Amino acid sequence: MRRAVLLLLTLVYLAGVAWMTLRPSVYGPGTTELLWRALDLFARHDETSWITFARVEAAANVAMFVPMGMFPALLLPRRFWWVGIVVGFAATVGIEWYQAAYLSATRFSDPQDLVMNTLGAVIGAVFVGLALPRRRRRRPAGARSPAPVW
């Protein structure tokens, strides 16, 4: 059951990433206006003037790809935690290629996206690789544990 739920969440997540990255415009008219208003508000105050569009976009790219590293690491055996990094990198290469080839009139392929997206996948995969406890093999009833080798 756990694997089926994870697989469903993975598919929903991938559909969301495709929707965000493979359409001609990432922002709708209302979203763009709201974003620029918020950034303008931040720029007016010294304490928040460091919050710029470039930083928000970079942070959003990292955050969007954390699950890209987590889901493969959760679905595969623990020793394959690193596959999430490869999946995140490969997905980003595919997205950037698609944007350059088919959406070049409204979107642009950016090497920083490759770095930020892959960083997000690394964070997700490493978190799963380090945070989840190791699964113990179950021994049949009556089986003895091997003697430690010291």
Description:
66% of the residues lie in helices and 0% in strands. The chain is mostly helical.
**Strands, count:** 0
- End-to-end CA span: 41 Å
Question: Approximately how much helix is present in the residues?
Answer: 55-70%
Given the C-alpha coordinates, what overall shape results?
A: globular
Spans of at least 5 consecutive residues with low confidence:
none
Number of DSSP helices? 5
Largest sheet: none
SS class: mainly alpha
Q: What's the overall average pLDDT, rounded? A: 87
SSE run? HHHHH
Strand content: under 5%
- Radius of gyration based on Cα positions: 21 Å
Quickly list its features.
150 residues
In short:
Helix content is 66%, strand content 0%. It is mainly alpha-helical and 150 residues long.
What's the SSE blueprint?
Layout: H1 2-21, H2 29-43, H3 53-75, H4 83-102, H5 111-131
